[in-house]
Write a structure and sequence with these properties.
Helix content: 10-25%
InterPro entries: Fim_isopep_form_D2_dom (IPR026466), FM1-like (IPR048052), GramPos_pilinD1_N (IPR032364), Ig-like_fold (IPR013783), LPXTG_anchor (IPR019931), SpaA_PFL_dom_1 (IPR041033)
Mean pLDDT: 83
Number of helices: 10
Protein name: Gram positive anchor
Low-confidence stretches: 1-44, 595-605, 660-666
Radius of gyration: 41 Å
Keywords: Cell wall, Membrane, Peptidoglycan-anchor, Secreted, Signal, Transmembrane, Transmembrane helix
Organism: Coprococcus catus GD/7
Distance between the termini: 173 Å
Structural class: alpha+beta
Strand order of the largest sheet: 44-43-37-36-32-33-34-35-31-46-45
Largest sheet: 11 strands, mixed
Number of strands: 46
Pfam family, one: Gram_pos_anchor
């Protein structure tokens, strides 16, 4: 085509204004401040297409800003010029780690047909963009027609007016938002002609300079993990004319602007994580899951990792990593049976009602590994979504945006010394790590559940100090579950629980060591009856069973809350967000503890500063016990307090009965013989007299 270095302002003003209006759906486009003022149109009423322009972007988190009450959707007008006041207000909500790509679509052309019979401004766009926008070939303006004064001889391009371009982009975003955005994001991500800006910094800032005049398409192509919805793609014409009503109250249409500053918005949000446990119903557990549970050794536990998948929209927001890391304490053995279920309703998810799951994954959608730390004895279970799993999660139509993902598996409580008894409990820490398309940026969520087990510390004695304690025998009956305790003896008088039975003949007979010591390890917090079945010869067994109650340790555990831009307890913005945004955590009474407990912190592990609320652990309520209704002392076990209930059981000598042997027998025999003899003599004398 023939280059024209001068373009009349009349048509350009109209197209520039119209094109900048397209930014209002997704951005606040403002002029970048420069040291030299632009020449007024009166002095220079043409575009100098040899001059270079620039595009500057400030990226802000509108979700947080609206939550803090500093911004309302639609309250600011896009004019194409810089707005220092807006930048000051929005600076706490800058989003770091966003990539914008831009494509110079083509030249600005004056269409003059048949000697001025029709004159208008048109824009050149490539074939692929025409197809994505759904523009018809028949509606294009022909710049190669015979009667066009300035023909364009480029191939593979089309020419449309600003109205056509605006309408096509608007209709595509309104009618098929995700499809259109994904297509444009993919187009600029893969196009050899597009350019990528540097990732936005801590101020949300990025730019591109030394740009030729022409029409530009700008698309958000990568986002950090907290962004749930990218801004709508928009078109910018360089240069464009200023608009009236901006922050410096200039009259519109008075000068050309070669430097555009844009303020695009993002909606943000994060996934959730909840770690839950219950005794398997086969082991006497109920249907409810919780953060803490009391268990017996030998029990099989059902574990859940419940995560609400974050909102996924266009391709730039697709998840690229979704990984759970679950650390089991040394007292737990993983059964290698992970499955994943996906639910549309939270209630079904937290109760893991698999019959209501939308999908159940067993193999291809995730990988799992379980590595045991030889030093600590802990097992680290890692569950990572595979490319296939991520593809299913991200699918624009059949995907699982905002669904609940439940990772579930079982673990067994060890019947040995590795199970921690008492208040320390057996902790199980879970971490969720996720990324989106801006690979450098990730975030984590943490949660914990704890299972508590206890024991009996029995001391068997005799009133005269002479009995053999090893000849005593006991059974232990769980009154709550109506089962007898089954255990194995590891050493003299030391037992580890292995199971339960409802058959008395299968109940374990517990025998103390000769020293009188009896340790029963690994019972849950419940009501028990300890019955003495037998004792050493010459001693009385207990008349009745001993009633033992163990009240388990409890505590409130609330998962961490992922950071949101501006969530910093020390700032006004952070305090405002805590009141209006789901960014803090509450205790069991519903009181926000983000600040009162001092658990809110700044996260900067990813090279940025984002407020984050740590996992909250409430005050622990220690275990307690009673014996026959009277408070009982509990002893420690390996440094963990309130581990075993202390009992001292005394057997007394039996009462002495009259002897049935020895001198007593002889005396009775002699006396009897004498009596018989005397009777015989007397009888004989009576007969003689007669």
């Amino acid at each position: 085509m023939r280059k024209r270095h001068l373009l009349k302002k009349a048509g350009t003003s109209l197209i520039a204004a119209a094109l900048m209006l397209s930014c209002t759906a997704s951005a606040y486009a403002q002029e970048k401040e420069s040291g030299a003022a632009e020449d007024a149109l009166e002095a220079s009423d043409v575009i100098d297409i040899t001059k270079k322009g620039s595009i500057t972007i400030y990226k802000y988190d509108m979700t947080s800003a609206e939550a803090a009450g500093v911004y309302t959707e639609g309250s600011h007008q896009a004019t194409g010029e810089a707005d220092p006041a807006l930048q000051e207000i929005m600076s706490p909500y800058a989003v770091e780690g966003v990539e914008f790509s831009y494509l110079r679509c083509g030249d600005i052309e004056t269409y003059s047909y048949n000697g001025g019979a029709a004159v208008k401004l048109v824009y050149e766009i490539p074939e692929e963009l025409r197809r994505i926008l759904g523009l018809k070939e028949a509606d294009a303006v022909s710049m190669s027609a015979e009667n066009v004064s300035s023909q364009c001889l480029h191939t593979g391009v089309w020419h449309y007016t600003s109205q056509q371009l605006n309408d096509a982009l608007k209709n595509g975003l309104e009618n098929e938002n995700i499809k259109t955005k994904s297509a444009l994001e993919n187009y600029l991500s893969t196009s050899e002609k597009s350019e990528k800006m540097t990732l936005t910094d801590q101020f949300g800032y990025t730019y591109a300079d030394k740009l030729q005049t022409g029409l530009y398409l700008i698309v958000e192509t990568k986002v950090p993990e907290q962004v749930t919805a990218t801004c709508n793609p928009w078109l910018v014409s360089l240069p464009f004319t200023n608009e009236g009503g901006n922050w410096n109250n200039e009259k519109g249409g008075e000068k050309w602007l070669y430097d555009a500053v844009c303020y695009p918005k993002n909606q943000t949000g994060n996934p959730t994580l909840d770690k839950l446990v219950r005794q398997s119903p086969d082991c006497g557990g109920d249907d409810g899951y919780d953060s803490t549970e009391t268990v017996s050794e030998g029990d099989v536990l059902d574990y859940l990792l419940v995560s609400k998948i974050p909102h996924i929209t266009s391709q730039a927001t697709w998840l690229k990593m979704y990984t759970f890391k679950d650390t089991l304490s040394k007292g737990l053995t993983y059964n290698k049976d992970v499955k994943i279920a996906l639910y549309s309703h939270e209630e079904d998810a937290i109760n893991n009602k698999t019959e209501k799951a939308e999908a159940i994954w067993t193999t291809n959608e995730f990988t799992q590994s379980a590595l045991k730390d030889g030093k600590s004895g802990q097992t680290v279970l890692t569950i990572s979504m595979t490319d296939k799993g991520l593809e299913k999660m991200n699918h624009p139509e059949q995907g699982f945006s905002d669904y609940y993902m439940v990772v579930y598996y079982t673990a067994k409580v060890n019947s040995d010394h590795t199970t921690v008894l008492g208040d320390d409990g057996n902790e199980n820490d879970a971490v969720l790590t996720w990324k989106r398309t801006s690979e450098k940026y990730f975030n984590t969520l943490e949660d914990r559940c704890v299972v508590y087990a206890f024991g009996l510390n029995l001391n068997k004695t005799f009133s005269d100090g002479k009995g053999n304690a090893a000849k005593a025998a006991f059974t232990l009956f769980n009154k709550d579950n109506q089962v007898y305790v089954v255990a194995e003896e590891a050493a003299g008088g030391t037992y580890y629980v292995t199971g339960k039975t409802n058959m008395k003949e299968q109940a374990t007979i517990f025998r103390p060591a000769e020293s009188g010591k009896l340790l029963i390890n690994g019972i849950e917090g419940d009501n028990y009856q300890l019955t003495e079945c037998s004792t050493d010869n010459g001693y009385s067994i207990l008349k009745e069973g001993i009633m033992i109650t163990i009240n388990s340790t409890t505590e409130t555990i609330i998962p961490s809350v992922a950071g949101t831009t501006g969530l910093e307890a020390a700032t006004d913005a952070g305090q405002a967000i805590n009141k209006n945004y789901n960014g803090g955590i509450v205790d069991a009474e519903g009181v926000n503890v983000s600040e009162s407990k001092g658990v809110q912190r700044l996260e900067n592990a990813n090279g940025r500063t984002i407020g984050k609320t740590d996992m909250y652990e409430g005050d622990k309520i220690s275990a307690s016990a009673s014996v026959d209704g009277i408070d009982a002392a509990m002893s420690d076990a390996d440094g963990s307090v309130n581990a075993r209930v202390n009992l001292n059981i005394l057997n007394s000598k039996t009462f002495l009965l009259p002897q049935t042997g020895g001198t007593g027998l002889y005396a009775a025999t002699i006396i009897g013989a004498i009596a018989i003899g005397l009777g015989f003599v007397l009888t004989r004398k009576k007969r003689q007299r007669a």
